[in-house]
Amino acid sequence: MSMQGKRCLITGATSGLGEVTALALAQMGAEVIIVSRREEKCRRTVEIIRDQTGNPAVDYFRANLSSQNEIRDLAGAVKKKYARLDVLVNNAGGFFWGRRESVDGIEMTFALNHLNYFLLTHLLLEILEKSSSARIVNVSSGGHNNQEIDFGNLQLEQNYIHFTAYGKSKLANLYFTYELDRRLYGKPITVNAVNPGYTASNIAREGNLFGWIFMPLTRIIANSTEKGAETIIYLASSEEVEGISGNYYQDKKAIPSSPTSYEVETAKQLWYISEQLTGLN
Ligand SMILES: NC(=O)c1ccc[n+]([C@@H]2O[C@H](COP(=O)([O-])OP(=O)(O)OC[C@H]3O[C@@H](n4cnc5c(N)ncnc54)[C@H](OP(=O)(O)O)[C@@H]3O)[C@@H](O)[C@H]2O)c1
């Protein structure tokens, strides 16, 4: 599969699934832009991708995607440098063992895993619309199953439970995907969500001793990052999904997400609240 002539932006591409995705797309000849929060790690990843693929068209932007100001600055810088974007992979995410807040005072899991996708996508739509056929890929998770959005406790001020916070944010990725698909109707931009499956990445290791010890142990039952990234790469590049939008994928197949995730009124309400929280409305 050739991605020659396609420009792809991948968030959270200095580790795990994002890094493998960026490498694969560069290998296919795409122009690749990686985004992550640490300057040095971004630089190193760009070098690794260039070395391993022989593709010099690898660029980076540093941004902490839990900060709305940084997302706005990032989008501004990307739009200044690039007039067109063909693929946006919203992948940067995290799992937080204890409740904490972003610089904007928003619960961190919701800020990074959902509002980041929501705001960055909105701000980059202008250049995605310049592509003859653009794709947005939102990395969600099977962790969304059995979760619901509780608008009365959206930021989990009461009863923060890490797995629940994570699962709800990944359900929010699906509401966002399906609502965005409805709103993009008639435009040459597709949007799909993906469950990479349980993958041996660096997620859930940050800032917690248990995470550092426990997460590496789980690697024996986890997919490799190469396996986990397969469906992300497929959605970003395969001709088989050209023009297909509004689906949830796992193992390169569209599968149903949880029944709750298809509630249109909940998706609309979450959209409205996300607009308020990001100052888009
Ligand atoms: N691993 C799994 O089992 C699994 C399963 C289902 C879904 N997912 C989803 O897959 C996506 C990628 O996760 P992963 O498993 O590959 O985790 P990972 O190895 O921890 O990679 C996460 C990436 O996001 C970046 N990042 C984290 N916080 C950021 C911030 N505030 N601003 C900018 N970049 C930030 C990280 O940067 P650094 O390199 O600086 O840390 C890294 O590049 C997430 O959306 C996750 O929810 C993962």
Short account of what is shown:
The protein has helices at 16-27, 39-53, 68-81, 108-128, 162-183, 209-217, 225-237, 264-278; strands spanning 7-11, 31-36, 58-62, 87-90, 134-139, 189-194, 248-250, 253-255. With 281 residues, it is an alpha/beta fold. It has an eight-stranded mixed beta sheet with strand order 3-2-1-4-5-6-7-8, sandwiched between helices.
Spatial order of the strands forming the largest sheet: 3-2-1-4-5-6-7-8
User: Looking at this structure, what is the CATH superfamily?
Assistant: NAD(P)-binding Rossmann-like Domain
What ligand species are in this complex? NADP nicotinamide-adenine-dinucleotide phosphate
The level-1 CATH class = Alpha Beta
Gap from first CA to last CA: 40 Å
The average pLDDT is 95
Order of helices and strands: EHEHEHEHEHEHHEEH
Strand content: 5-15%
Radius of gyration: 17 Å
Structural class estimated from helices and strands: alpha/beta
Q: Quickly count the helices.
A: 8
Low-confidence stretches: none
CATH topology name: Rossmann fold
As for the number of domains, it is 1
Q: Based on Cα principal axes, name the global outline.
A: globular
- Architecture, CATH level 2? 3-Layer(aba) Sandwich
What does this structure look like?
43% of the residues lie in helices and 14% in strands. An 8-stranded mixed β-sheet has the order 3-2-1-4-5-6-7-8, sandwiched between helices. Helix 1 links the parallel strand 1 and strand 2. The relative contact order is 0.14. The protein binds NADP nicotinamide-adenine-dinucleotide phosphate. NADP nicotinamide-adenine-dinucleotide phosphate binds next to helix 1.
